[in-house]
Amino acid sequence: MKLRIAQRRGQRLRDAQAEARLFRRRALWGLLLASLLVGTLGARFAWLQVVQHEVYQTRSEDNRIRLRSIPPSRGLVYDRNGRLLADNVPAYRLELVPEQVDEIDATLSALSDVVSLSEDDLSRFRTTLKSKRRFQSVPLKLRLNESEMASFAVNRYRFPGVEVVPYLTRRYPYGELFAHVIGYVGRLDEADLEGMTSQDIADYDGTTLIGKSGIEKHYEKELHGKVGYERVEINAEGRVLRVIERQPAVPGRDLFLSIDADLQAAAEAAFEGQPGAAVAVDPNNGEVLAMLSLPSYDPNDFVSGISQRDYSALLANPGRPLFNRALSGGYEPGSTLKPFIGLAGLELGLRRPEDTVLSTGAFKLPGQDREYRDYRRGGHGRVNLKEALAQSVNTYFYQLAVDLGIDRMGEYMTRFGFGGPSGIDLDGEATGILPSREWKLRNRQQVWFPGETVIAGIGQGFWVVTPLQLAEGLTMLANGGIRYPLHLLRAVRDGFDSPVMPLQMPPPPASVVKEPGNLDAVREGMIAVVHGSTGSAHRVIGLDAPYTIAGKSGTAQRVSRTGDESIKVDDLPFELRHRALFVAYAPAEKPEIAAVVIVEHGGSGSLAAAPVARRILDAWVLRDPSGTAGNDADAGGGSSP
């Protein structure tokens, strides 16, 4: 009995056949699992080595090979005689590569003990950092001095990812003299990148400067050039071992302007520190010979980033040195419009040159008691167009304006460029105001009154012109009525060894003057202004003039008189003194230059602006074409005249 029980228990504890079956099942599942794991591993290897081969090869290369941008050298800017107005000079900057720096804030803090970093430097760095990729260098401080470079070199080992990088920076040898023409470059920021295409942004890799104003901004694409690239091999520390491939950058184009440095300097000297603006143009082709706005500023202060304190001081300056008066300044033209109004009367058949008007010192509209006066008490007597221009007789032009009407007057004045931009190759040009019924209704929500037509005839009331508009109209009086586009760019060059290519201008349009004899009559009046015995500028600039000048003075009053009172300019506060204007071209027989001068707070066009204009004309007409200092292509590159 016990033996049988033990045998039964032994059978339950060990069943060889069952164990064999269990082993086979487990072995089969183990083999399947192992095969699956091996198959998965093999598939993964195949995916990595075959399908993703190029991806991981590229990643591997990226750990060893870097693509570095090569910024192009910016094109140079010259005057018409080859004097350097905007140059490139070597400098050094501090750059940081974000992906190579573990703690940027800690690094900046430590760097501040080695190199002087201002709040402006740090602010610009953080702003630029947002628009850059982590592997791209970000400028931290421009224009390191020798002491800062030496201090960083000693501590270089403490700052992986931070390097001193050589580069070319902008320099303006003439400083304030050309600030409003050439403009300046400044540090590239997010605002500059807005509106750019991805390709445009790529073209600025490694570039820290971009045109902000003037010629630098308007011709940014021409001056900037094309970025280059090089593939370099690096070690584990990120240092360059060798250059594998290089695509050089394409330098920017050199620009040759129509501006003459000597004439520009003469114009600045002629103002003798007075605020104002001047524009001189060649009436035979529209080339701008000089363009001045005073007071001015030094554009070199902006290249590396002007401090907030200095910028605030410029903004707070009551002389507004940053404001380009020649381009954007709006002025009441006063009597400088009389030649155009007189020509309109002749061309539209309302006057003949010999027709006369009686000036009694006051003009009244029929049925009105208000008087519109001449500047001379008792008037000028009976005058024709020539004497009306020579003596600046208001009464003649009051009556002519009434006969023309504001609509015909405005339509005719548009032919000479008033009421719209000249189209000069600078950004930010103002358009002025060409008064009309429609303009007043749109801007003032008021109807037009007859008295407003009267004062519009002498360039007052709602009239606003820019110096460039006056210059454009003046050139048309000088050249026979042809409207040449005003321009500053004269020629370009693709490289130092390339030929200078003159700017190709479109053929000139037809004259806007229908009858040349009408223009001759206006010119005679303008010559009489300077050389006639009764001319308003005769005693000031005409007595000793060695050549014939055709001109017209203008005084834009800032304080109106009432009743019979007279206003003494010298008794007015400086900021309320009348604006003085003078327009002139010379030699009158064969014009070479047309100049517009505006002296703010000058008081009188004949007394304040005419002498300035005369000095500008002298500097050009009496120059020695074979001996001017500007003929030396290397002259002017080192210091301000």
What features would you describe in this structure?
The structure is a single chain. The chain has 641 residues and is of the alpha+beta class. The protein folds into 3 domains: 50 residues; 192 residues, Penicillin-binding protein 2a (Domain 2) (Alpha-Beta Complex), CATH 3.90.1310; 311 residues, DD-peptidase/beta-lactamase superfamily (Beta-lactamase, 3-Layer(aba) Sandwich), CATH 3.40.710. 38% of the residues lie in helices and 18% in strands. The protein is built from 24 helices and 21 strands. The strands form 6 sheets. Strands 2, 3, 4, 5, 10, 17 and 18 form a 7-stranded mixed β-sheet that branches. Strands 12-11-21-20-19 form a 5-stranded antiparallel β-sheet, with helices on both faces. Strand 17 and strand 18 form a beta hairpin.
Number of strands: 21
In helices, the fraction of residues equals 25-40%
Number of helices: 24
CATH topology of the largest domain: Beta-lactamase
- What's the structural domain tally? 3
On the 0 to 100 scale, the average pLDDT is 87
* Shape label: elongated
Our Rg estimate from Cα atoms comes to: 38 Å
Main β-sheet: number of strands, strand sense, barrel status? Answer: 7 strands, mixed
